[in-house]
Amino acid sequence: MMKRRDFFRSAAIIGGAALLGEAGTESEKDSRLVRGVDPVNLEFPFASLKDFLTPTGLHYVRNHYPVPNLEERTFQLQVFGRVQRPLTLTLGDLRKMKKKTVTVTMECAGNGRSFLPIKAKGVQWAQGAVSTAEWTGTPLAEVLALARLEKDAVEVVFDSADKGDPKKEGQPPGLLSFNRSISLTKAGSPEVLLAYEMNGQPLPPNHGYPLRAIVPGWYGMASVKWLTRVIVTRDRFDGFDQTIDYAYWRNGEDGLPRLSPLTVMQPKAQIATPEAGAKRSCGEKVRVFGAAWAGEKELRSVQVSSDGGKNWQEATFIDKGIPYCWRRWEWMWTPKVKGEAVLMAKATDATGATQPLTHDAGRRSYMINFVQRTPVTIT
Ligand SMILES: Nc1nc2c(c(=O)[nH]1)N[C@H]1C(S)=C(S)[C@@H](COP(=O)(O)O)O[C@H]1N2
Ligand SMILES: [Mo]
User: Fold this and answer.
1) Measured from the CA of 207, which atom of ligand 1 is nearest?
2) Of 227, 261, 295, which one is at a domain's C-terminal end?
3) Res 200: pLDDT
4) Per-residue confidence at 2, pLDDT binned at 50, 70, 90?
5) Are both 355 and 237 inside the same structural domain?
6) Cα-trace Rg, the chain
7) Total tally of structural domains belonging to the chain
8) What pLDDT band is residue 15 in, cutting at 50, 70 and 90?
9) Which ligand is closest in space to the CA of residue 177?
10) Which terminal CB of the chain, N or C, has fewer other CB atoms within 10 Å?
């Protein structure tokens, strides 16, 4: 018989993941946190972090609009704009081209939004709008080489089949699709993929079936799902998801702030366990465990503090450094004083860039990598 608690748990899921058939077998529960039902938004329960790769059924999902109903049989990708040979490609065409697999830690630019000191609009993510998966597909650079870029090409815009009303101030009229651009420099990286597989299986509907962009090292918004159009432009693209959404205030050399599109993921370490509010005993050995990442950069170190940031000690990496991937880390701690202890973890990348202690307001409700505080009660 179903326990009462289980009933409530699966009831909460009905609106989210289970209906979309991603939880695998019926007995396999979807433990993701439901952050939105229409459209579906699901959070990886970061406290349950175990493996390096996030199983597909646990990977976070960030959808702005309803999942479009696409079929591989009729699917076409249009490549046009500042190219000499516009292309129309089927999935079959793409599968016949060079195939590449890249392992990527993808983080939503709004991950951690619920921790902002002033509550901001948007999906109230805790720590779990981040996951790591293996993506397989055709390098974008192969497709662009086939289409032959014009000399004046500057950016590559990804446009998608999902449509809706963002219900935001300043939006253009009509239904919008989700779209973002990347620079030609980034587009030339062999790791940027037009992906048709996730963890060795066809993309699930929630993750962009049948085709999505994968832009390793950049916040998740660049990895456009349900990708139907690749547009090469000679201007910087100023679309809605590039300017109103997913943009931040960055000061130029003249000190004047400019609204700039979000791109690379900032260094960040997160503690999975112990969880905030956990109890541990004085003198007991405690394993502080988590993951850290640094976007396009290599991670240099993770440091942990158990006294609210006064003293820091080096954590040990569990995973070796793989480009674009998080590294799980641990730090052994023996609390010696009763009362409340505050755990903090801080990542530094190979260039020396590290995490701020407070959120820079110019980042609006994105790029939230200020050091988190995890209070633990020692008894
Ligand atoms: N077409 C489309 N692509 C999209 C989105 C979307 O809503 N529509 N969300 C973006 C955002 S903000 C993120 S963080 C990632 C999330 O990818 P995932 O759902 O596979 O984890 O997809 C990006 N690509
Ligand atoms: Mo995102």
Assistant:
1) 20
2) 261
3) 98
4) very low
5) no
6) 21
7) 2
8) very low
9) 1
10) N
Nearest atom within ligand 1 for CA of residue 213:
24
Mean pLDDT of 77-106: 98
| Residue 90's CATH number | 3.90.420.10
Whether residue 366 sits in one domain with residue 220:
no
Task: Provide the residue count of the chain.
Answer: 379
- Nearest to 147, CA basis, from 218, 183, 197, 93: 93
Hey, which of 63, 134, 179, 182 would you mutate to test ligand 1's pocket, going by the most ligand atoms within 8 Å of its Cβ? 63
Does 308 score more than 60 pLDDT?
Answer: yes
pLDDT digits (tens, 9 = 90+) for 232-241: 999 999 999 9
Which tens digit of pLDDT belongs to each residue from 20-69?
Answer: 445 444 446 899 999 999 999 999 999 999 999 999 999 999 999 999 99
Distance 130 CA to ligand 2 centre (A): 9
| Residue-range definition of the domain harbouring residue 335 | 268-378
Task: Please tell me whether residues 306 and 361 are part of one structural domain.
Answer: yes
Q: Is the pLDDT confidence value at 14 over 70?
A: no
109 CA to centre of ligand 2 in angstroms: 5
User: Of the residues 239, 261, 283, which one is the last residue of a structural domain?
Assistant: 261
What is the C-alpha to C-alpha distance for residues 71 and 368, in angstroms, rounded to an integer?
36
Distance 62 CA to ligand 1 centre (A): 5
Exposure string (b/e) for 30-68, b if CB count within 10 Å is 16 or more?
Answer: bebbbbbeebbbbbbbbbebeebebebbbbbbbbbbebb
Find the helix or strand (DSSP H, E) in which 146 lies. Answer: helix 140-147
Residue 367 lies in a domain: yes
Report yes or no on 22 lying in a domain: no
Q: Ligand 2 center to residue 28 CA distance, Å?
A: 27
Average pLDDT, the chain: 94
pTM to 2 decimal places:
0.94
**Cβ < 6 A, ligand 1 pocket:** 59-64, 106, 108, 160, 162, 178, 207, 220-221, 223-226
Please report whether residue 1 resides in a domain: no
Q: Report d(CA 327, CA 322) in Å as an integer.
A: 8
- Are 211 and 100 found together in one domain? yes
Distance between CA atoms of residues 274 and 306, nearest Å:
12
